[in-house]
Amino acid sequence: MIRLCGIRKRFGENLVLRGVDLDVPEGHVTALIGPSGSGKSTLLRTANLLELPEAGSIEIGDHRVVFEDGIKPQPSAILNIRRQTGMVFQNFQLFPHRSVVANVMEGLVTVWKWPTDKAKRHALELLEKVGMSDKGDAWPATLSGGQQQRVAIARAIAASPTLLLCDEPTSALDPELAAEVVEVLSSLAAEGTTMLMATHDLRLAARVADQVAFLEGGQIVEQGPPERMFSHPSDPRTIRFVRTLSASTEADGQTH
Amino acid sequence: MPPTLQLMLDSLWPLVRAGLVFTVPLAILSFAFGLSLGFVVALARLFGPRPLALFARFYVWFIRGTPLLVQLFVIFYGLPSVGILIDAFPAALIGFTLSVGAYTSEIIRAALSSIPKGQWEAAYAIGMTQRQAMVRTVVPQAVRVAVPPLSNSFISLVKDTSLAAAITVPELFQQAQRIVATTYEPLILYVEAALLYLVLSSVLSALQARLEKRFGRYGGYMESGS
Fold it and tell me: Do the chains contact at B225 and A141, CB–CB below 8 Å?
């Protein structure tokens, strides 16, 4: 069970999440869409506690953390949640001082205490899966953005997390490079990886997601399957957003 | 052989020996201790509870704001009047360590702060504790940033060890002074001492270049993609 409940988060005066409830069905992909500042990235980052909510609860697998104003959870409770999630960042955030294969091994060796040779074998299998097996010894800085993001995906799924979080995984990439990342993510989705992603890449959401939630002003305004959300949204805010998004996607398609 | 050259050759071994027995160990030990102190002070300022962070700031402010020579005099000549007697070499070691600690703490603090927040997050996201993220992800990258300014500090320190002559440590420069006292050849001896410091500094510069290459081998960041 993966459930975010009544999540509230403020940055200073600004209330970015106003009590958000979200169930992430296992074996499926949930996409969070919405305009900049809608809170979708913040919501995603509360799921592995990179942002600590002020109120609400987060339940992933056997672990549940409840947040109350002013009470910081135990570090071990935070680790328990984090160790059941993997995360893919907009800007990849590979460790630049480690080779590609060492990036993928890092969590297995440091956090999960796997022996090096076993971790390396597993890391190479994962690199194979994301089409990067020939680059195991390369430094991250020598790779294209799309290649870096594919390595970052391999790193994020290395410890077989219950939930894979993707924060704008294609936004920093050119369309061709984005396409190879979409490819990898959709094959993970087809294998039944549970994912929660924040994106404004309509193609990514339409191709990969089973469920789409539209956020605005720190609240989920509407949610449903992508076909309905993109072709027959019911809330006027969703309608407006989907319209601007498809307009910009078409403009994108024409320039490339 | 011209007498000048002969004098230089004759004094070479006494000077080099003083350098090897006092200057080099003093520099290496006080840099090693000072760097460890600097790391702890940097951590205190970045992550420590407020009183500790304030104490660390006070320490840096005080050491950086007072002359090293005066600090050495306080330790060696001043402290005995309150009953604390320290031999010349350990007194110099304490003085230089405190000095190196203050200056390098600022370098280390800057180097640690220069590592992007996203690297911490990437480490946390794979389940690392704060300590693991520090040791495995942040420090190795910060080292690379810190090598050039730390090399600066080390080279300065090697030359500053000549101040220990003033508190009776028989290091390279004091040895030169002693030879001058019997030969009355200040120009020759002090130039020779200067050249020996230059040799030491050059060795360290070469070492710095190797370290930079070693830590720079992975290339730059490539954060913003494509």
Answer: no
Q: Which residue shows structure tokens 């320490």?
A: B59
How many Å separate Cα B181 from the centre of its chain? 30
By Cβ distance, the residue of A87, A144, A174 closest to B125 is A87
Signed CA dihedral, A24, A25, A31, A34: sign only: negative
Q: What's the gap in Å between the CA of B71 and the closest CA on chain A?
A: 40
- Show which residues on chain A lie within 8 Å of chain B, measured between beta carbons: 48, 50, 75, 79, 82-83, 85-87, 89, 91-98, 106-107, 110-112, 139-146, 148-149, 155-156, 158-159, 165, 172-174, 177
A78-103 tens-digit pLDDT:
999 999 999 999 999 999 999 999 99
Least reliable range by pLDDT among B1-5, B16-20, B75-79: B1-5
0.90 surpassed by complex ipTM? yes
CATH match for A2-84+163-255 among 3.40.630.30, 3.40.50.300, 3.40.50.1260, 3.40.50.720: 3.40.50.300
Q: In which element (H, E) is residue B93 found?
A: helix B88-113
Q: In chain A, where are the structural domains located?
A: 2-84+163-255, 90-160
pTM comes to 0.89
